[in-house]
Prior knowledge:
Mean pLDDT: 81
Number of strands: 13
Number of helices: 11
Oligomer: single chain
Amino acid sequence: MTDIADTSGPPVDPLGTAAAPEKSVRGQSPWRRVASDFVESWVAVLGLILLLIIIFVAVMAPIISPQNPYDLNQIRVEESRLPPGAASMTTPPTQDIDVAIDPTVAGPLSITFNGEAPFASVTGEATPNEDATSIAVSLTFDPPATIERVARVRVDGLPRGAELSIGEKHSFRSFWEVPTEGLSQFDITDADGIDAPFTLEIEAVGTEGEVLMTYWLGTDGQGRDMLSAIFYGLEISLRVGVLSGIFALAIGMSMGLIAAYYGGRIDSVIMRIVDIQLSFPAILVALILLAIIGRGVGNVILALIIVQWAYYARTTRSAALVERNKEYVEAARCLALSTPRVLFRHILPNCMPPLIVIGTLQVANAIALEATLSFLGIGMPLTEPSLGLLIANGFDFMLSGRYWISVFPGVALLITIIAINLVGDQLRDILNPRLRRDG
Length: 439
């Protein structure tokens, strides 16, 4: 009597090794399955990380931006078109020194300060010559190192006709511009003689002030920090793209559901309108609309809604045509449920996977289209520059070598669109198994 083999264990392959049991997904929620499939592509994960960083930067722009590019009190026009890495400095410190000189008495000078003294304390001597036509002045800064911070010295208050042995007299004003290296020793001469006390007024100006901020990406033609402008531009571009996508999705989804559910003439009329709109380039339709209604954030969003809703309508109709003949729809009709409830509570949830994919990709298209319109000068207003308008602002400076004004906003726009497309492409592969790529 032969023994019957026990087949209750794991299957055995021809080589005699036990085959690994198949991975079970029973009991796994749809969102968990989508997430597990999504992380299988490191490129898609990288795109998602970039997208989350971009969204964080756009939302937190008013907080994390080094500068508010729309606050005129923070913008310095004299710092326009600075290269990347340039620093914004405070106004150089100044010091007014009044030196009382009595040509009849040789010896230490009387020094007084007007206001604060950011440089050194000053002592000195004045030695007149025998005929009182010249006075040798010697000034000492304590400590001596601070004299290196003096960029400009203005000497005023000389007697009429007197001259300095250093520097040059202003062309039409009475003060002298004195180099810092000659400040320690100079002569005051007057051929008619210097016989009355006078006060020598010295204005010392520092070479530079403290660093306010560093323009890591340079500044544009208006003196705005490019990094801050890009942060604010991202917020505007994402806001326009997302809002236009949401409203276009709502309109197109409703029209597609109605067309698929009722069919007949209603379906034909709606789909013919969709076909007519899709036959024209999106940029052409948007240009015509904005040329009629004008620039502005609301007008750009409206134009993008009109351009995009047809894509959602066609996608929704295709998915709803498959769902409307299924048993759960017939059961809902038999229960005498209202048409809106059947459409939006029963059919629509089963049409969402392709709409999620189309919505993700259309947001990227909307951002690119808005940037194109702003670059052409009919999109966003100058008071709310998006990435496209920032690129347009720097276009005139490209040939002069100031590439950063256009290149950095362009790079930010490119990264944003690529990140959204990477996420949308992976969602398309996950939610539509027929499009899944091997490997």
